[in-house]
Structure of ABC transporter ATP-binding protein:
Amino acid sequence: TDAVRLESLHKTYDETVTALAGVTATFATGTFTAVMGPSGSGKSTLLQCAAGLDRPTGGRVFIGGTEVTATNDTAMTKFRRQRVGFIFQDYNLLPSLTVEQNVVLPLKLARRKVDRRRCRDVLAQLGLGDKLDARPEKLSGGQRQRVAVARALVARPAVIFADEPTGALDLRSAQEVLALLRAVVHQHGGTVVMVTHDPMAAAYADSVLFLADGRLAGELRAPTADAVAE
Ligand code: ADP
Ligand code: ADP
């Protein structure tokens, strides 16, 4: 089944800047896909439209079989809170909330039971076990980025979109975050779509989509175990 399907996505800003010029792509359930391409090629726009954070100017977006482009803003927001996790490039942490309060927020917004233990486990997995009560302003860029990762994972969303999730991390933290995203996909059946500039990060994905000038310019698939055995 398809976790996410994009049909002929177009996005024009201010009626002049074409960010997406007809992208059709499918992200199957239980796959980890990297999206690469030069700066300005439309990667962030693609992610935001696919996640229902922004509306394309043309084309359709399906998440788990539901056409989110056919719903109104209220329904789209509600749907997103139930199904989607988003790791923002600039983290989007709320400055007035502590680390733990930031991470718990998606559970509250989705009206789910707040499982503090689970929240703390995810933060501990990301090396933030001693930062629960800190405010974002007290954290380094890398720590903030890991809080953003924890917040996107805590509700176990069906689909996780990650915009440069390792951009602020040192090599070791980056590898830990990438291994966690792989575990979400390969041990828990989640689906991850990750924009990255970093070939090391892309190597953790099962396939890589390349964008250029708002269009798909190529695709690379990691060899399957079967293919390797041949
Ligand atoms: P990438 O993530 O690959 O760097 P973006 O999706 O951010 O690409 O941008 C694609 C194009 O759309 C660029 O030309 C960029 O300047 C433009 N763009 C992105 N966001 C906006 C916006 N909010 N308003 C106007 N133009 C935008
Ligand atoms: P756990 O013992 O909580 O299953 P794992 O290390 O096996 O921990 O899981 C890795 C991470 O993946 C955890 O932080 C968890 O929050 C997250 N996770 C597990 N399942 C999903 C899912 N279906 N979607 C998104 N995230 C998930």
The pocket of adenosine-5'-diphosphate (ligand 2) is lined by residues 121-122, 125, 153, 156-157, 160, 180, 183-184, 187-190 (CB under 6 Å). The CA atoms of residues 124 and 130 lie 8 Å apart. DSSP finds eight helices and ten strands in the chain. Residues 171-186 form the longest helix (16 residues).
